[in-house]
Amino acid sequence: MTTKTTDETFTVDCPICKKAVIWSPQSPYRPFCSKRCQLIDLGEWAAEEKAIPCENADFAMDPENNEDWAKH
After folding, report:
1. Count of domains in the chain?
2. 17 lies in a domain?
3. Can the peptide bond before residue 31 be classed as cis, meaning omega within 30 degrees of 0?
4. Would the annotation count 54 as a binding residue?
5. Is residue 17 marked as binding?
6. Which of 8, 33, 42, 56 has a CB 3.0–4.6 Å from the CB of 19, allowing a cystine?
């Protein structure tokens, strides 16, 4: 959740632990609260626990069955 605080400063919830994070240069890991939460998130992406939804992702898995693969 994003909330507005004084002086045009925003607070967001850390995506991992849900702690409030002030959105400013003083929060170097934003939107995460810490390096630890940042690395947990990176690990989830690396382990393919997270992914961006895509309807046409299968072509990349088997280039031999996709004629367009050779053109790129």
Report:
1. 1
2. yes
3. yes
4. no
5. yes
6. 33
